[in-house]
C-alpha cells in the first residue's frame, strides 16, 4: 500500500505592540472587545513565531490534533484553539463540498510545530504572533481563499490581539457592533513604508511569565473598575481618532503623546481594578522617567513608551533620534543603582517595522 501523503504549510507571523490598547471583552466566548485598538507590527527579524501545519490520513485519529510549542507538547483542547480549528475546518469542508476532487484535509488530524524567537508570555504579545501564525499556517495548508481581514476574525477568537498580527505596518482592530462578531476585524491603517523611519526599542525588563494573564486581568477590570467606563466610552474613541490622524500625517509628537497617554490610561484602569493589578515594576517606571528626561533634553518629543500586561517597555522613536533615545536609555537606566543588570542585559537590539506575513 502506498504511504499516505503528508500535506504541509509553514508561515511566520510578527508581534504587534498596541499604541491604543485592547482591554476588556464584551463577549468572552467570541472574544469581542469593549473598544477598538491600534497597533504597530514589529520586525520579524527580531520577534516572530514560525509555525508549520501538517495533516495526513496516516496521523492517528485517536490522538487527534496536536501542537509542539518551543519543543514542548502544548494543549490544543482549550476553547480558543478549538474555535480556530473549527472555523478553519468549516471553511475547508465548504471548498471540498464544492469540488469533490480536492483531498479531504478537513477530516484529517492537524499537527502543528511552533517556535518563538522571544520569551513566551512575558508581556511581549506572544499569543498574538502565535495565533496569527496558527491561523495563517492552517489557512495555507487548506488553501483557503481568505483575505487577511477574514483570517483576522478567526485569529481574534484565539487571542484578541492576534487579529492585528495578520497585517504589517499600522493596524486597527475595529471593535464592530454585530453580536456574531462578523464585523470585529483588523484592517491596515498604513503600510510600514508609509512611515519607514519609525523604530521600536524593546526593553526586556523581565522575561518571566506575567503574574495576571491578560484574559483574567481584563475580565476583573471590566467587572470592578469605574474608571474603565470612562476609558471605553471617551478616552479610547478619542485616542483612536487622534492616532489615525497622527499616523496619516506622520506626526511623531502626536503619535507619541497618544501612545503614552493610552498606556497610562490602560494601567490606571488596572490600578482601579479591585483588587488592583500592577503590571509595571520599578524598572518600568524608571524607563518612563528616562523617556521624559530624553524628551526634556531634546526640547521636543523624540520618544514614546508603552507597556502591555507586563513590565517590559517598548519605546517608539524615529531613526534620526536613535543616538538621543537608545544612547540615553543605556546611560540613564545604567546609572540607577541596582537596576543596571536587568535593564542593560535586557536591552534588545532595536527593531524596525515589518510588512507582515
Ligand atoms: C495589554 O490579546 O493577550 O496587550 O484576547 O484574552 O487573549 P486575549 O488577550 P490579549 O490581550 C492583549 C492586551 C494588551 C493590549 C493590546 O495588545 O491591545
TrEMBL record:
Pathway annotation: Isoprenoid biosynthesis; isopentenyl diphosphate biosynthesis via mevalonate pathway; isopentenyl diphosphate from (R)-mevalonate: step 3/3
Keyword Lipid biosynthesis found: yes
Enzymatic reactions: (R)-5-diphosphomevalonate + ATP = isopentenyl diphosphate + ADP + phosphate + CO2
Top EC class of this enzyme: lyase
SUPFAM superfamilies per the UniProt record, alphabetical: GHMP Kinase, C-terminal domain, Ribosomal protein S5 domain 2-like
InterPro entries the UniProt entry points to: GHMP_kinase_C_sf, Mev_decarb, Mev_diP_decarb, MVD-like_N, Mvd1_C, Ribosomal_Su5_D2-typ_SF, Ribsml_uS5_D2-typ_fold_subgr
Keyword Zinc-finger included in the entry's annotation: no
Keywords: ATP-binding, Kinase, Lipid biosynthesis, Lipid metabolism, Lyase, Nucleotide-binding, Steroid biosynthesis, Steroid metabolism, Sterol biosynthesis, Sterol metabolism, Transferase
Pfam family membership, one: MDD_C
Domain of life, per lineage: Eukaryota
Coiled-coil residues: none
The enzyme's E.C. designation: 4.1.1.33
Residue ranges annotated for the Diphosphomevalonate decarboxylase-like N-terminal domain, each copy included: 13-186
Residue span, Mvd1 C-terminal domain: 200-357
Family under the similarity heading: Belongs to the diphosphomevalonate decarboxylase family.
Stored NCBIfam families: mevDPdecarb
Protein name: Diphosphomevalonate decarboxylase
